[in-house]
């Protein structure tokens, strides 16, 4: 079975790449249990606030769609990869140097 982290990223991917899907509060509600579960196993920094993370992820999906619309010349896979890196680096705990 996929981890909560994997399911969360899959959800973000689906929402970011399928313009027929509506984005809103229902997506935040769908993300909350995934975020909580990922925090329990330290895949997401537990110092973050779960509802805030969900709200910002939905905001990033909106932003991704706007960027895609404004820059159709960029490879969609490149934009999706960039979104995943941004999400991953933001949500994971800082690594000791």
Short summary of the structure?
With 97 residues, the protein is mainly α. It is built from 4 helices and no strands. The mean pLDDT is 93.
Counting DSSP H or I runs of 4 or more residues, the number of helices is: 4
Order of helices and strands: HHHH
Work out the helicity level: 55-70%
Q: What share of the residues does DSSP label as strand, in percent? A: under 5%
List the domain count as a whole number: 1
Give the N-to-C terminal Cα separation.
32 Å
Which class of secondary structure composition applies to the elements? mainly alpha
**Main β-sheet: number of strands, strand sense, barrel status?**
none
Radius of gyration: 13 Å
Taking pLDDT < 50 over at least 5 consecutive residues as the criterion, the unreliable ranges are none
Q: Report mean pLDDT, rounded to a whole number.
A: 93
Which word captures the global form? globular
User: Total strand count, please?
Assistant: 0
Name its key features.
97 residues, mainly alpha, globular
Report on the architecture of this protein:
This protein is 69% helix and 0% strand. It has 97 residues and is an all-alpha fold. The longest helix has 21 residues, at 50-70.
SSE inventory with pairings:
Blueprint: H1 4-17, H2 25-40, H3 50-70, H4 76-91
Helix pairs in contact: 1-2, 1-3, 2-3, 3-4
């Amino acid at each position: 079975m996929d981890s909560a982290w994997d399911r969360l990223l899959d959800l973000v991917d689906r929402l970011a790449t399928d313009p027929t899907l509506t984005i809103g509060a229902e997506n935040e509600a769908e993300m909350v249990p995934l975020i909580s579960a990922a925090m329990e196993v330290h895949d997401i920094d537990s110092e973050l606030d779960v509802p805030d993370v969900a709200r910002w992820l939905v905001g990033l999906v909106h932003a991704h769609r706007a960027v895609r619309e404004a820059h159709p010349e960029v490879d969609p896979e490149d934009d999706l990869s960039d979104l995943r890196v941004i999400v991953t680096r933001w949500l994971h705990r800082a690594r000791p140097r």
